[in-house]
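3.2 Worked example (two chains)
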Amino acid sequence: MAKYKLSIQAERDLASIFEYGIFQFGLNQAQYFLMEIEQTFEGLSRFNMSGIDVSELYLGLRKYAFKSHLIFYLPTTYGVFIVRVLHQSRDYMRSSFEDFV
């Protein structure tokens, strides 16, 4: 069965998104968003080549758009390794994709 794993930075990204969601939209909406993005991670783990190749940032890295966020991940033998989850308005070209392990 395919599965996903999160980098420490991706866990931090999700925590920040969740906190912001509670503040802006309320607890229920923040929880719903988290459930949806986790379902997206599960889908990516089954179809791990779905995203767009962005190897110019890090060899093998792919990105996948989810609502107003971009999921950066590496395909693996078990599914996917989620590297970062960033808002689409962020300049992700300036983000570090080297220190995620």
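3.2.1 Second chain
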Amino acid sequence: MRNVGFSKFCAGNLDIAGASRVIRKEEIEKCRENGVEFLELPMAIDGLAVIVNKKNQFAKCLTIKELDKMWNTKAEGRITSWKQINPKFPDERLLLFAPPSDTGTFDYFTQAITGKRRNSRTDFTPNRNQNALVQGVIGNPSALAYLGISFYMQNQDRLNLVAIENNEGKCVKPVPIDNVLRNVYNPLSRPLFIYVNKNNLKTNPSLEKFVRFYLENSWKWVDGVGYVALPDEAYVKTLRKFERGETGSKFGKAKPGEPITNFI
């Protein structure tokens, strides 16, 4: 499933593309075919929140194995009850809500949880509007959804946030936000990027000024929208990368949960 933003960007129709996942090999090839050189600039870190209805008092912590059982393609039409996820859970209908398959959030969650791209069941209720996903969970006692943490934080008094068993075997939530920054909320923490068309930077001074302003000031704003600012070192390295005009992607080999400073 193609990502609409990258499709337009690699066709040369956008100066900047915001992204919640790394550009893929086939998208890089499409950019190359169209003569689009790009800069890959990390901006912030986000944690994907797994949420359930306020009445759900049993799904306090889920393992990656349980989430995989719930979401992978083999679950389609077969895993329909909470009890199938864990025999200790009640025999209640499992209702799933998520962003659609052409979004970075869907891509990242699927890769992190199932270990493979596109390895997701399709019999869930999709919605590009993450506030609609929130409302879906609020309105259904047996529902579960995943979405950007900022949408949970805006509605935290009406939802339960599920802890995820991390790589160290500890149940961790993305709140407090420091858990995301310290990379203990893994593997559901992810970098957020902007991709900039280098060709257009050369011919559009206003674009260069805008990107520079964004790089120098975005750390002031990310906390206010529910994201986590990068370490100071990362912003310095990203600005230097921009000033050098360094093109291409280094993040393709990064595994979910790896420190972002390793790849700038």
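3.3 Remarks
The domain at 4-44+194-262 is CATH 3.40.190.10 (D-Maltodextrin-Binding Protein; domain 2).
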